[in-house]
Amino acid sequence: QVQLVESGGGLVQAGGSLRLSCAASGSIRGIYAMGWYRQAPGNQRELVAAIDSNGRTNYAGSVEGRFTISRDNAKNTVYLQMNSLKPEDTAVYYCNGDMTWNRVLRADFRSWGQGTQVTVSS
Question: How many CB atoms are located within 10 Å of the residue 16 CB?
Answer without folding.
Answer: 14
